[in-house]
């Protein structure tokens, strides 16, 4: 049943309806028929059908996109709840994708995410999230086209993340003073990190804590590289990926203080080559680039596949040619290229005689790394991999932990203001100390206070918080928590601080699986400092169960190595003007995909009518195989679709 038919039935049927028209203001607190609460995104239309306990939320723009909240009196299991809820809103196909289980939250138990493996030709994302309260259930169904699913991520998260059971009282830190980080709490944190590291399969972790201006913990766990004995220490260098962003905006703050730029300066004045030829040339300001509100959709495949063959000028040109996905400043749209352009523009302001990339490297060294005493922090990927450094790791589809080819991580050099720094816990503790001290470090005012604090002003709204200038801001627990994480090939990082509590923390890991540990490390800190209800250990257990279930589900869909019949269907070379050449070669009985930046063993992924070339040991988008003539590979980032055609000459 198509959703247009369903909505006609809801609107014109005899059941009573409550229709909420879109608002242009802030998000709207809403209550379901059973008294559960949630936030409806501003500008979305809400249609309630109380007698059937169904609510339909629609984003602006019409079409078949929707979120549905369905309440059930009972169900035997999460699977049964998802199936019953789907039937109530016209979804007759079962949710046959893998299940993902999460820890109890917001007064609900049995939180399980289900997905439907839609045919490739449908280009839709369909998911169901179940949650139980007593014997009753609430199911949230998301049904969006692929591009909207990506673009509306913050709105999806808002509805699902704020949904709370009737009578649930959210935890708060208001009025609570943090405990002193004593020996007992250190032992508990040590045990948690070490247990989680071993359970998740993370070779090495480094952490650091600050309380009341003093470093109260700095520690390393495990090893720098699989199969080697060198231990991780607080001075081991890790890749930061997007945790580089707040360092870049710190540099920008120093230029703002000296009135070399302002947060409101049109970017085209800083980089004339960025003139768009339309209204964006004057409307796009520096602050938009670093606050995820430039209007640009995420566009990472160019640098992912081409890496250092892209220059800083190439990156600027990509942004100039990009088509805006949203109005400038209107909404959160996390994207890396705009931040890279902001960093390059700042470098040009400070050192106009240098090439854009070299100018950024110089201004970061002179205005951030040297003033803060961050001696082991660098943007040079060759220098970073000398001495005491960690190697990135990823699990392949068989669950085998492998080291990541350094060339894969070096791709971020093209956009390094957004994610190219390497650093240590010791260096980052100095940075967090500076943030907690509002620009002071070692008793001196190292950074301008006003410009530094301006980065913490919310620019766009998110669930229970927002995004500032290169900083996430969370207010759901009362006091503001400022942070930024980083995720890349085999590395995860996070820096955070709570000024009101005078607490800060750093965590660095050298495995993609470390993302789970990184996220739950924050939860564990709140449990230890503020007696927040325990949940970190349960979440680790569920994460491992989900990981194993996903592996069991997807591994049978992979053909390794590709059969002779499949190899014959592949061309030797494909090309796209933005992504470069993709070369297919056979070696040692395997098939390999070579891009301009790296290579990986390639396997075949089959799912219904979707046939793709997938990478084995590099996290990358699947390449849909199109039989010719001409033969082609198609790759999408959820917003942009690239067709790589066979090269025959």
What report would you give on this structure?
The protein is built from 21 helices and 33 strands. It is of the alpha+beta class. An eight-stranded antiparallel sheet has the order 1-4-5-6-10-9-8-7.
Entry summary:
The chain has 649 residues and is of the alpha+beta class.
Summarize the SSE layout with pairings.
Elements: H1 3-12, E1 18-20, E2 28-31, E3 37-40, E4 45-49, E5 54-58, E6 66-72, H2 78-88, E7 100-102, E8 109-115, E9 124-133, E10 136-145, H3 146-151, H4 153-162, H5 183-200, E11 204-211, E12 214-222, E13 238-239, H6 245-257, H7 267-270, H8 280-283, H9 286-289, H10 301-306, H11 312-321, H12 337-350, H13 356-369, H14 381-384, E14 393-395, E15 401-403, H15 406-409, H16 416-419, E16 422-423, H17 425-436, E17 440-441, E18 444-445, H18 449-454, E19 460-462, E20 465-467, E21 472-474, E22 481-488, E23 491-498, E24 503-509, H19 514-530, H20 536-554, E25 558-559, H21 564-569, E26 573-576, E27 580-587, E28 590-594, E29 599-607, E30 610-615, E31 623-626, E32 632-636, E33 641-646
Antiparallel strand pairs: 1-4, 2-3, 4-5, 5-6, 6-10, 7-8, 8-9, 9-10, 11-12, 11-24, 13-16, 14-15, 17-18, 19-20, 20-21, 21-22, 22-23, 23-24, 25-29, 26-27, 26-33, 27-28, 28-29, 29-30, 30-31, 31-32, 32-33
Count of distinct strands: 33
The strands making up the biggest β-sheet line up spatially as 1-4-5-6-10-9-8-7
Alpha-beta content class: alpha+beta
Please outline the major beta sheet.
8 strands, antiparallel
Task: Enumerate how many helices there are, as a single number.
Answer: 21
Question: What integer value in Å does the Rg equal?
Answer: 25 Å
| Large-scale geometry | globular
Strand content: 25-35%
In helices, the fraction of residues equals: 25-40%
N-C termini distance = 47 Å
In round numbers, the mean pLDDT is 91
The residue ranges in which pLDDT falls below 50 over 5 or more consecutive positions are 1-24
């Amino acid at each position: 049943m198509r959703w247009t038919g369903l909505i006609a039935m809801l609107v014109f049927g005899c059941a009573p309806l409550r229709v909420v028209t879109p608002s242009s203001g802030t998000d709207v607190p809403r209550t379901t028929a059973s008294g559960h609460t949630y936030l409806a995104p501003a500008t979305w239309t809400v249609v309630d059908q109380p007698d059937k306990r169904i609510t339909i939320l629609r984003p602006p723009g019409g079409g078949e996109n929707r979120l549905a909240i369905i309440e059930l009196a009972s169900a035997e299991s999460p699977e049964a709840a998802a199936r019953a809820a789907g039937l109530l809103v016209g979804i007759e196909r079962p949710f046959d994708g893998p299940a993902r289980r999460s820890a109890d939250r917001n007064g609900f138990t049995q939180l399980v995410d289900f997905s439907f493996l839609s045919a490739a030709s449908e280009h839709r994302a369909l998911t169901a999230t179940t949650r139980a309260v007593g014997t009753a259930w609430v199911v949230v169904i998301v049904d969006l086209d692929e591009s909207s699913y990506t673009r509306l991520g913050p709105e999806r998260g808002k509805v699902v993340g704020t949904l709370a059971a009737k009578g649930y009282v959210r935890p708060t830190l208001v009025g609570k003073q943090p405990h002193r980080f004593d020996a007992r709490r250190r032992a508990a944190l040590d045990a948690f990190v070490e247990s989680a590291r071993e359970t998740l399969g993370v070779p090495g972790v480094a952490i650091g804590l600050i309380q009341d201006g003093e470093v109260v913990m700095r520690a390393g766990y495990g090893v720098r590289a699989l199969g080697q004995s060198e231990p991780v220490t607080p001075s081991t260098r890790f890749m930061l990926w997007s945790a580089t962003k707040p360092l870049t905006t710190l540099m920008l703050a120093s230029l703002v203080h000296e009135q070399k730029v302002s947060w409101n300066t049109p970017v085209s004045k800083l980089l004339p080559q960025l003139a768009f030829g339309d209204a964006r040339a004057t409307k796009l300001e520096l602050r938009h680039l670093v606050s995820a509100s430039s209007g640009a959709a995420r566009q990472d495949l160019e640098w992912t596949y081409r890496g250092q063959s892209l220059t800083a000028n190439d990156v600027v040109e990509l942004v100039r040619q990009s088509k805006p996905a949203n109005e400038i400043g209107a909404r959160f749209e996390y994207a890396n290229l705009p931040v890279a352009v902001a960093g390059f523009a700042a470098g040009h302001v400070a050192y106009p005689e240098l090439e854009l990339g070299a100018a950024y490297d110089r201004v970061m060294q002179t205005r951030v790394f040297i003033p803060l005493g961050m001696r082991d922090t660098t943007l040079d990927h060759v220098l970073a991999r000398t001495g005491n450094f960690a190697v990135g790791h990823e699990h392949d589809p068989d669950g085998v932990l492998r080291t990541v080819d350094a060339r894969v991580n070096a791709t971020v050099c093209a956009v390094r203001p957004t994610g190219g720094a390497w650093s240590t816990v010791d260096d980052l503790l100095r940075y967090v100390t500076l943030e907690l001290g509002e620009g002071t470090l070692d008793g001196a005012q190292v950074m301008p206070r006003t410009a530094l604090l301006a980065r913490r002003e919310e620019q766009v709204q998110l669930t229970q918080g927002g995004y500032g200038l290169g900083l996430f801001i969370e207010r759901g627990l009362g006091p503001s928590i400022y942070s930024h994480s980083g995720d890349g090939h085999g590395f995860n990082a996070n820096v955070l601080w709570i000024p009101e509590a005078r607490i800060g923390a750093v965590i660095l890991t050298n495995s993609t699986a470390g993302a789970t540990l990184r996220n739950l490390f924050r939860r564990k800190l709140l449990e230890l400092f503020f007696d927040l209800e325990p949940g970190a250990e349960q979440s680790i257990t569920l994460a491992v169960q989900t990981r194993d279930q996903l592996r069991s589900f997807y591994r049978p869909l992979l053909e390794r190595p590709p059969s002779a019949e499949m190899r014959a269907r592949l061309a030797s070379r494909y090309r796209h003007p933005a992504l470069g050449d993709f070369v297919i070669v056979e070696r040692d009985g395997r098939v390999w995909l070579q891009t301009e930046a790296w290579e990986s063993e390639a396997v075949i992924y089959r799912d219904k009518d979707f046939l793709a070339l997938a990478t084995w040991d590099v996290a990358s988008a699947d390449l849909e195989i199109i039989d010719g003539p001409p033969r082609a590979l198609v790759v999408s980032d959820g917003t942009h679709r690239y067709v790589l055609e066979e090269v025959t000459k």
